[in-house]
């Protein structure tokens, strides 16, 4: 196990690399640090906005006018938290732990989180919320048992079409953010091994 924890060719253990990267992170320019730390929040904020938009579209489709605040609040909070947590778990943390060293993998993860977590999830989350409100307040005719799935698909399809631009933007922003984060990671790795080589020379 000890041998596996030593990075080949440099004599540094994985734990030492992580510690040195964390120290070097503080030496990065402020804009790089802020983008790395707060970028996922912007992605989560976009997801919250997507949740509010999709919630509004479902409310119009199902003629729901009641419980505007109580339905909008979870549609903003849950997508924000989910997208932020997913990005940190799948991109930020693995990069800072030196577990993710593949640029295409990083960008693919960022794009998927942007589209799925920040776009598709808010849309799907808004469906049961508003169908439940429509059933409670009898604002729209709902299907009998057995036709619910078809009804949900019919209601969701036009909303997905109207949300395509949001999905594309989320995918683009997720890709851009993850690519910038990988650049930061690359910079940290270079700083880490450069300082290690200087220590060896001394």
From TrEMBL:
Record key words, sorted: Membrane, Mitochondrion, Transmembrane, Transmembrane helix
Cellular component, GO annotation: mitochondrial membrane
Example GO BP: mitochondrial respiratory chain complex I assembly
UniProt subcellular location: Mitochondrion membrane
Pfam family name, one: TMEM126
Spans through the membrane: 35-55, 67-87, 107-127
InterPro entries assigned: TMEM126
Membrane topology: Multi-pass membrane protein
Name of the protein in its database record: Transmembrane protein 126A
